[in-house]
C-alpha cells in the first residue's frame, strides 16, 4: 500500500449547481394489482400500503381529485374493489402526486477532489442528500444528475452515468460527501462501509476497529457543556421508537438497538460559555449517530432542535398522531422537531480511505489550508468562503485562535470583532475574540 497522500482542493475551487425551480415535477407511484389484493377496495389499498403518506381522509381526497389511474384510466370511486380488475393480467395502479413547492435549500456544491472514479463534495447545511419526504427534487443527487446531463456526450453517443452518494450525511450536517462515479467504485465503497459496521457488531476493540477499517469519517462538532476528559469512547446501541412525522421510527439511544461506536477527542474548551469543540470519529454508521451519542453522555450539539441529554428526543406524546392533512392530502408537518431539522453545529471534516480502484491511501481534509493560513501583520482580519455556516464556523475558530495567539505574543489587544461571511447568506459573528456569541442567518 502506498504512502498516505494529502489531497488538497483543486487549484481554483470548482463549484456547480443550478437554482431550484419554484415547483418540482411531482411524483408517480406505481403498483401492480396482485391476487392477494383481490379483497381490498381502492381506498383500503392506498390507506394501508401508504399509511405514512396520508391519513384515510387524505387518500379519499386524492382519489376524488382524479390522482389515481388504473391502466391509465382515472378512477374516482374509493370503494371500487380491486377484484374488478383481477381478470386482466398486469393491471397497474398509479398515484399521481401533484407538483409542490419544496422547502428552501441551498444548491451550490463545491468539488474538493475528483478523479475518474470518485468525487468528494462540500455539502452545505440544509441540503438533503437523497430524495425523501418533502425533498424530492432539492437534493445533492438531483444536482449531480443535472450537472452530468449538461456534459457533452461521449463518442459512442451515450451520456455518462451521474455520480451517486455512497454514505449518509444529515440534511443539517455540512462537509465532505463522497460519491462514486462508476458501478465498481460504488460497490467497493459500499462494501467498505458495510465491513466497518460489521466489525463494530463483532465487538472488536476501538483500536482493532481502526486498523481493520478501509474508510473512516471524522467530524467536528460544537457541543453544549464542557468535557473533562480529553478522550471519550462512546459505546451505545442505537434503535428506533415510534415518533410523529417519522414513518420508519426515530433513531435514539436504545439498549436493544444495534451496536454503535464513536471516538471523541476534545479540541477546545470554552469554560466561559460552557461549550466544547470536539472531533468525532465514528466506527459505525448509524443514522444520526453523533447527535445521539453526544447527547447520550449529556453533551448535545449546540442548536440541535431534536436530541437532548440521554440520546432521546424532546418531550412528545408518541400516541398523539395528527390526522389533519395538507391541500394535497398528505399529513401536515408535525409540531414536534424531526431529524431533518437544521441548526445544529456538525461538520464532516475529513474522510480517510483506501482508494477502491487504485488501492492508494487518500485523505480529503476540508479546511486544512484555513488552519495553516499565514497572518500577515494587520492585513488579515477575516475570511470569506462560499460554504455552510458550520464550515464557516470552524474556519473562523481556526483563524481566531491563530490571530489571538499572535496578538497576545505581541502584547496587543484581542478585542477586535471578526465577521466571517459566506455568499450563500450564512453569517457567523464573533462579538469578541473569546467567542461569546454566534449568530446564524
From TrEMBL:
Stretches assigned to the Pseudouridine synthase RsuA/RluA-like domain: 118-295
Keyword Ribosomal protein carried by entry: no
Signal peptide location: none
Reactions that this protein is recorded to catalyse: a uridine in RNA = a pseudouridine in RNA
Superkingdom of the organism of origin: Eukaryota
GO BP annotations listed: carboxylic acid metabolic process; enzyme-directed rRNA pseudouridine synthesis
Keyword annotations: Pyridoxal phosphate
Gene Ontology molecular-function annotations: carbon-carbon lyase activity; pseudouridine synthase activity; pyridoxal phosphate binding; RNA binding
Stored InterPro entries: PsdUridine_synth_cat_dom_sf, PsdUridine_synth_RluA-like_CS, PsdUridine_synth_RsuA/RluA, PyrdxlP-dep_de-COase, PyrdxlP-dep_Trfase, RluA_PseudoU_synthase
SUPFAM superfamilies in the record: PLP-dependent transferases, Pseudouridine synthase
Protein name per Swiss-Prot or TrEMBL: RNA pseudouridine synthase 5 isoform X1
UniProt source species: Nicotiana tabacum
